[in-house]
Amino acid sequence: MTESFEYNRAHNPLNPRVSLATIASILGLVSIALLLSVYFSIILGGIAITLALLSRDENGMLFPQAKRGIIFGLIGLFGGYALLVSSFVTVFTDPEAHKMVNQYSEAITGQSFDDMFKEITDNLGVSINLPTE
């Protein structure tokens, strides 16, 4: 008698694609949990989406875990990018936040954020107005 482990394809631990889909779902959840550490969220969300797409079966169908991995990964990915963009917008538009970034930069590197930013823009030949205090 031969045993078939295909009776429940969505939870079959012997199928490596199910394991890949489960890992994608877990990484997607972790990317949401690490949303405030922007870079981890973006990286893990991208990996979750990639693994979920790689876990498709022979017919091109996605397992339920892979679908959750894609959804969670997209939330982590877009949430991370939204936080990153809003942080840059805040630094360049809010004078109080800009002042705090200057203070932290001087404390850590000995050079203000304005000086470093001016050096970068001069090298690129770009002119950007920073908020004044």
Describe it.
- With 133 residues, the protein is an all-alpha fold.
- Helices cover 69% and strands 0% of the residues.
- It has 5 helices and no strands.
- Helix 1 packs parallel to helix 3, helix 2 runs antiparallel to helix 3 and helix 3 (64-93) packs across helix 4 (95-109).
Largest sheet: none
- The fraction of residues assigned to DSSP E strands is under 5%
Number of helices, where a helix is a run of at least 4 consecutive DSSP H or I residues: 5
Q: Indicate the multimeric state.
A: single chain
List keywords for this structure.
133 residues, mainly alpha, 5 helices, 0% strand, elongated
Topology, element by element:
Blueprint (H helix, E strand, L loop, with lengths): L15 H18 L4 H17 L9 H30 L1 H15 L3 H12 L9
Helix pairs in contact: 1-2, 1-3, 2-3, 3-4
